[in-house]
Amino acid sequence: MRVLGINALFHDPAAALVVDGAVVAAAEEERFSRRKHGKRPVPFSAWETPDLAAAWCLRHAGVRPEDLDAVAYSYDPALHLGPEQAGVHDPWDHLRLTYAEQAPGFLAEGIPGLDPDKVRFVPHHVAHAASAALAAPWGGSCAVLVLDGRGERHSHLAGVYRDGVLEVLASQQLPHSLGLLYEDVTAHLGFLRSSDEFKVMALASYGTPRHAEALRPLVHATGDGGFVTAGVDLGALTKPRHPDEEWTAEHADLAASVQLVVEEVLLDLARWLRETTGETRLAMAGGVALNCVANSRLAAGSGFAELWVQPAAGDAGTALGGALELSWRGGEPTAPFPGADLGRGWSDAEIEAVLRTAQVAYRRSDDVAEEVAQCLADDGVVAWYQGRSEFGPRALGHRSLLAHPGRAANLERLNDVKGREQFRPVAPMVRLDRAREVFPQGPVPSPYMLFVHDVAADWRDRIPAVVHVDGTARIQSVDPATEPLVARMLTGFERRTGLPVVVNTSLNTAGRPMVDSPRDALECFGSGPVDLLAIGPFVVHRRWAHEGLARS
């Protein structure tokens, strides 16, 4: 059975292809269009579909649009609740309903050969739930928790899967929404709504949650699997920050207060679900599930023995979830998530052709992992471009900027390279067999950077670039069985420095999507002070551009 999944209505448009129950391709439209998040999440853009991503998924698998058995669209217009009833106060929200109803026609127009009659509407939160529970390594049986900004009429789903069939146990109707509350705080603090929520999470570590007592009567769980988020006047707590203003302790305190209260609500919801279902395993999705600080509190205190978060937990992941849901309904039990490297990749010959066209000096490395390890040991910054691109917002060793973690100045250096705020942390990647020694508290394995871990006291001074102000780090554990090249690079770096950790941040600059194609990589490499580009088996050293060295 061949099922194409589509996310389009709100933000992060994406496509995913599931064939015979296995995920073979998934990609976000932004990687092709080079527009961050694909589009802004406003009603006027709701008609836009991820045509480029969908066409690539089909091409990659050798599937023609005519050969598809079904197309999953992750929003059901039959469940839409108008803005008056939902309390979202958007006079143009009716456009979303209109565009969702017309989505089959839009998709057929954008993907020639696609039969609009094969489009099936999958409820938004069901698609989120399926993206987690049906992709988790547990055979379609576990508890599931979804929290985001909004779907058709809800902002939350709590349920349980038994042999691939979902039973919904609770759902919170709008306008109550933890995701929308976090978006409101993001905008109040001068960041971009539906884009920069992770900045609020980072800023929270610099503050004190002194507004928590004022927020708790307004934002709390209700004891029945639901919650309220009503009547919060952010202006009464902290004056709004203009995007061009410097942040202050006042802004950090608001971020810290909201972060703490959201964590408390999530803990209450998860504990209710654990007691109600008796399950020991929890799968999570929805944009709120990208809050790695909250995820760590859930892993430690929810009562679930295992927690799995879908790495593309935001709306992009509903493309994957919709396809998995229809595949299971069609009698195809789904395979566990194969890893986040589900996007485009290029052969060595294709990469070399791009390098030749760009007329840059390059050479094929004798051992790219060892050459990169040496450059990092010499305190160079490396653009690392290997294999297929990641699905989701995290760079996981395929489209990364790497640096030496033992140089405290490298945090500021990388933020300058990327053109982003200095309070933003960078993440460590560490070989799986060394993770517990350096990061003793927090879930391991942690291959998708979706949890924070305490850094061992005797390591904090050794890897200062990756230690956040609160003594934590958002780690990626690297298993040599699944990421052998990255693991060899880490081994080579440790051999030279004694450090089993390398700084890893996404290969992009502020406001731009993560690089996807070799051309994107060259443009990013050329725009900032990066010392080495490791692209497939080839290397490009910045000094060559100045020394005029010929290709060898």
UniProtKB/TrEMBL annotation:
**Residues covered by the Carbamoyltransferase C-terminal domain:** 373-542
Which InterPro entries does the entry mention?
Answer: ATPase_NBD, Carbam_trans_C, Carbam_trans_C_sf, Carbtransf_dom, DHBP_synth_RibB-like_a/b_dom, NodU/CmcH_Carbamoyltrnsfr
Matching entries from Pfam families are given as: Carbam_trans_C, Carbam_trans_N
Give residue ranges for domain Carbamoyltransferase.
2-71, 117-324
Question: Per its UniProt entry, which superkingdom is the organism in?
Answer: Bacteria
SUPFAM superfamilies in alphabetical order: Actin-like ATPase domain, YrdC/RibB
Q: Which Gene3D superfamilies match?
A: 3.30.420.40, Carbamoyltransferase, C-terminal domain
What family is reported? Belongs to the NodU/CmcH family.
Which protein, by its recorded name, is this?
Answer: Carbamoyltransferase C-terminal domain-containing protein
Recite the lineage of the species.
Bacteria, Bacillati, Actinomycetota, Actinomycetes, Geodermatophilales
